[in-house]
Specification:
Strand 5, helix 5 (about 95-105) and strand 6 (about 110-115) form a beta-alpha-beta unit. Strands 3-2-1-4-5-6-7-8 form an 8-stranded mixed β-sheet, with helices on both faces. It has helices at about 10-25, 40-45, 50-55, 70-75, 95-105, 135-145, 160-190, 195-210, 215-225, 235-255, 260-275, 285-290, and strands at about 5-10, 30, 45-50, 60-65, 85-90, 110-115, 130-135, 150-155. The termini are far apart. The model has no long low-confidence stretch (mean pLDDT about 95). The protein is an alpha/beta fold.
């Protein structure tokens, strides 16, 4: 008999989690604000809790997947969570997650917060992983069960850290793919199909992450951590000019310029505050200090 688990929230993510626990032999209790959503899972062997108190009593491990953290408070209400390990995999701000950790401790529960780094179809499949933060002994106690969802990646005791990692990854993911779409749209105005652009985009991504001399991600990481931003070969001032040309090309092509303009303006701000002779990593100063004025 594998460890029982309760899943609260049966949207696409929560329902997939519950199904994954069932498929891996875990007695699974489910609760949802709209009980009818549980019907397919009940047919597969899940137990539908009639009340939140029943859901919490059914398992030591409570996995929560809801719209936001307020939904957790609204759903649990005055049902007792004392002695329970709450694993909230909902989205929110780092501050919300930290306040939720305080709430859990005040009510005698342990809270692990998490950020799931795959869409629902990827749950439990190779490559799936989840960022967790909070009390590590709680994760260790339930690691085997939570590993059914994906690799358990512990990032620290601060409950907000899992969401910081999650949102940093999402921003990187979205901005990279949107940049690709912008490039495809720009070329498309000249009749170039996206499949002709794809290999060049793939080569750029490989160069970004590679370990060789052109491994830009490694170069940039070292520059950020060392506080050095050499720009002899390609200064930020030159790159700001180039970013302006991307904006003009987009405008001439009749496609949206908001993304390239935001990038150009970020480069220009970094130049204005004195990083023009440095390399690209000089931009992190204005990202960290958005209100910094020229000459400050």
């Amino acid at each position: 008999m594998k460890s029982p688990v309760t899943v609260i929230g049966l949207g696409p993510m929560g329902a997939t989690m519950a199904r994954t626990f069932l498929d891996n032999g875990h007695p699974t209790t489910v609760w949802n604000r709209t009980p009818s959503k549980a019907a397919p899972l009940v047919e597969q062997g899940a137990t539908l809790a009639a009340t939140m108190a029943d859901a919490l009593a059914a398992s030591d491990l409570i996995v929560i997947s809801q719209t936001d953290y307020q939904a957790m408070y609204d759903s649990i209400g005055d049902a007792g969570v004392k002695g329970r390990a709450l694993v909230n995999l909902s989205s929110g701000s780092p501050g919300e997650l930290r306040r939720a950790g305080d709430w859990a401790r005040e009510n005698g529960a342990d809270l692990l917060t998490g950020g799931v780094m795959v869409p629902p179809p990827g749950i439990g499949r190779p490559g799936a992983y989840v960022f967790y933060s909070g009390p590590e002994p709680v994760l260790d106690r339930h690691r085997d069960t939570l590993a059914e969802l994906g690799d358990t990646t512990y990032v620290g005791t601060d409950p907000g850290l899992s969401m910081l990692f999650y949102q940093a990854q999402l921003y990187l993911f979205w901005s990279t793919l949107v940049s690709y779409m912008h490039g495809a749209a720009l070329l498309g105005t000249a009749g170039v199909p996206a499949h002709r652009f794809r290999p060049f985009a793939a080569a750029t991504l490989e160069a970004l992450t590679g370990d060789g001399p052109m491994g830009f991600l490694g170069i940039l990481t070292r520059a950020i951590e060392e506080g050095a931003s050499p720009g002899e070969a390609n200064s930020l001032r030159m790159q700001a000019v180039g970013a302006g040309h991307v904006v003009e090309a987009s405008r001439e092509a009749g496609i949206d310029t908001a993304g390239p303009a935001a990038l150009r303006d970020l480069f220009r701000r970094a130049v204005d505050v004195g990083h023009g002779a440095e390399g690209l990593s000089g931009v992190i100063d204005v990202i960290r200090h958005p209100g910094r004025a020229a000459g400050a």
